[in-house]
Task: inverse folding
């Protein structure tokens, strides 16, 4: 089911990890950001769009993680954009012929085993490096590219409607997840990358009235700044080796999200080991 969150912007929330799909209305059709995830959700989305007489004229993946790279044939053949770095990361992943089998294997351990279509997975069209806008016929969608959480990660800002699409940041259920995959490489600083991304987003979109995270609740007026501050406080605590005072972990975590505390302890240990 699509819910309108602002003029011309609708959101569909998946049953899995409260993953959000964002629909932005353009002149000739819609821009679809991070479509996901399960077969029945994707067909439901396709049906809703068809019933409203809307075709998908462009797609966008905020970052190269599997749950942001799914597509369904019924959504059509519009170009599915991502930043140049995002597209390169997906291309590299898919250069391994076992890549999709590995995702299916990972999904086999979840409640959505066998329910995610992978045929059209990861067909991302690279935007030129440094592209500042999504090329489409609709309200201006600014691309805020950074390196927090994943290479080539981009937040999108639909200024005309006051909507910030945050990708996997600014969530009310998930703490900041640092990109620790390359953390051991010389020069890599995933903590500083995260803080820099928060500053960048703050500079562009702190005035947004709506924030749509990749997972969790859509935040209303005042929430953008609050969520930026909460994510920053968490990352600063991690950096200082302090236990964060954060409602997303510990006894205040929302029901069903207790595992986020494990995720937190995992990255805290990893960072401590690297210090
Ligand atoms: Zn992610």
Result:
């Amino acid at each position: 089911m699509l819910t309108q969150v602002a003029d011309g912007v609708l959101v569909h929330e998946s049953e899995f990890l409260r993953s959000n799909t964002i629909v932005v209305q353009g002149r000739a059709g819609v821009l679809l950001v991070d479509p996901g995830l399960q077969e029945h959700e994707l067909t439901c989305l396709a049906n809703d769009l068809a019933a409203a007489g809307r075709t998908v004229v462009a797609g966008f993946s905020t970052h190269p993680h599997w749950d942001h790279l799914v597509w369904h044939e019924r959504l059509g053949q519009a170009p599915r954009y991502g930043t140049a770095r995002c597209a390169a990361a997906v291309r590299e992943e898919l250069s391994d012929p076992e890549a999709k089998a590995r995702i299916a294997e990972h999904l086999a351990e979840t409640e959505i085993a066998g329910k995610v279509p992978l045929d059209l997975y990861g067909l991302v069209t690279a935007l030129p490096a440094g592209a500042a806008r999504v090329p489409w016929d609709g309200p201006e969608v600014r691309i805020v590219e950074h390196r927090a959480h994943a290479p080539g990660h981009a937040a999108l800002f639909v200024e005309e409607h006051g909507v910030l699409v945050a990708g996997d940041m600014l969530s009310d259920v998930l703490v900041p997840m640092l990109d620790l995959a390359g953390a051991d490489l010389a020069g890599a600083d995933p903590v500083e990358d995260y803080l820099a991304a928060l500053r960048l987003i703050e500079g562009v979109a702190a005035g947004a009235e709506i924030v749509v995270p990749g997972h969790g609740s859509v935040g209303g007026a005042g929430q953008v700044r609050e969520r930026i501050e909460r994510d920053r406080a968490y990352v600063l605590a991690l950096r200082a080796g302090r236990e964060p005072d954060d409602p997303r972990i510990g006894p205040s975590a929302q029901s069903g999200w207790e595992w986020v505390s494990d995720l937190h302890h995992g990255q805290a240990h990893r960072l401590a080991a690297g210090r």
About this structure: The radius of gyration is 18 Å. The chain has six helices and eleven strands. The CA atoms of residues 237 and 244 lie 5 Å apart.
